[in-house]
Amino acid sequence: MIQTSQPTGRLRSALTGIVSAGLGFGVSELASGLLGIPSLIQGVADWVVDSVPPGVKDWAITVFGTNDKLALVVGIVAVGLGLGGLAGVLAGRRFGAAVAIFAGFGAAGALASSSNPATGVTAAWLVAIAAVVAGLAVLNWLTRAKADRAEMATRRDFLKTAAVAGLGIMTAGMGRALYSSARAAAGQREEVAVPQAIASELPAGTSFDVSGLTPVVVPNKDFYRIDTAIAIPRVDLDTWSLTFTGMVDTPYQIGFDELMDLPLVERYVTLSCVSNPVGGDLVGNARWLGVPLRDLLERAGVKPDAEQLVARSVDDFTVGFPVEAAFDGREALVAVGMNGEALPIEHGFPVRLVVSGLYGYVSATKWLTEIELTTWDGFDAYWVPRGWSKEAPVKTQSRIDTPARGSIESGTRFIAGVAWAPHRGIDRVEVQLDNGSWMEAELSEPLSKDAWRQWRLSHDFTTGSHRIRVRATDGTGQTQSENERPPAPNGAEGWHTVVVTAK
Ligand SMILES: Nc1nc2c(c(=O)[nH]1)N[C@H]1C(S)=C(S)[C@@H](COP(=O)(O)O)O[C@H]1N2
Ligand SMILES: [Mo]
Fold it and tell me: Are 426 and 453 contacting, i.e. CB atoms less than 8 angstroms apart?
């Protein structure tokens, strides 16, 4: 009785493979829910819909009606479970075959769903890898359990298999619940009515029309994004609040509606990341709508010995900056809007900080929920113990956007870019060709002292190789230093240089 009859044995192996694949699907749902991205299975279905010839699509719609997408999802899961069954049968003799089947199916899923911009390549692969690893681990465990023990273990194997199947269903359910909470946040964002304090049309002269030049106001979808969040925090507007605490006379909390009822101002402020290398694109300019930080702090009453303002996000990220920055006349906003819209979820919905002249890592908390007044010794914000400076004013910088390095046509064209020194303003931008004398570029009219300015200079390029350099002078008369420094620990320095070959 030691030998199980072949067909039942094979059936049981297939079942083992099927539940392992099912668990893999469950884990893929859970992982995509955690990351707030569409389900991987749904992603594959969407890819199939986009890729099949129109004739097939029409056929599917006639056969399955409006449930064609659901049918497709069911079909994909069925194929996956079927392959899982095959892997289960093969696993006993050659586990490598099972690995190949799981990995192949996972890779196909990642490839198909990564074409969806809402998913993204990294997230698609992360989810697929998690699913494949989980599926194979369980398959290995179930297969081994069966090989080790004889017939008497059947009941226990059955229980294990059933447990895995249950776990698969549970993880899938959790994944979907998480994803729908992400969708709920997106839905709430769409309902936030964002008033406009200033006109969205740019004042005359503030923007140059030069091909290849970064727009003076960067659209939200193109704005750089930097944060430590693996899954973007989804904040529920109904329960969200901002707390003022620490060294204040009267700590208080404010909800979203109450915040929106306060006088809002709208300002152009250029935000930049300390990690931005010379010539890099981790910098952008937007029109931010918000309540002046000063107004909210005055309501709490800042104690005279408070030195540092610490701002915490819902995911516990923190920044810290001098309390004076809220009172010295620079733009410092508790922001709710970006370029005429509610803050995009990835840029901090519902509320973030924007403080002119301070790098993002010391000032621009997204998904803001707490502001604490303390001393300098009282707290080290997130990046400080990781080697970045405790205080970090933005350094004056300029960038050449066009021409980009490489070959260009010889003849007359614009050299153009942007320059920023938020809060101090930009007074002059100069361009040098090869070893020639510095030439003053034309500047776009300033949107504000806090916003970058575009610059341009027309130049007749002769054939051959040319080195272009740029340097800016801020509103205090300081010209940016030639000295090259890396981003760590408090911001890169140096003149952006581009080498082109004119043909
Ligand atoms: N909650 C939270 N806020 C954050 C960060 C973060 O990691 N978490 N990163 C900061 C950094 S380093 C920068 S440069 C800016 C970037 O803002 P953006 O993604 O809207 O461009 O956000 C800041 N605010
Ligand atoms: Mo940053």
Answer: yes
Measured CA to CA in angstroms, residue 260 lies from 127, 186, 220, 263, 364 at distances of: 38, 18, 21, 8, 19
Nearest ligand by distance to the CA of 363: 1
Contact between residue 492 and residue 277 where contact means Cβ atoms under 8 Å apart: yes
Rounded distance from Cα 31 to ligand 2 centre (Å): 26
State the pTM of this model. Answer: 0.74
Among 228, 341, 366, say which to mutate for ligand 1: greatest number of ligand atoms within 8 Å of CB. Answer: 366
CB 371 within 8 A of CB 447: no
pLDDT tens per residue across span 65-107 = 556 667 888 889 999 999 999 999 999 889 999 999 999 999 9
326 close to 373: Cβ distance less than 8 angstroms: no
Ligand 2 centroid from CA 391, angstroms: 13
Distances in whole angstroms, Cα of residue 386 to Cα of each of 76, 278, 373: 45, 22, 22
CA separation for the pair 169, 155 (Å, rounded): 21
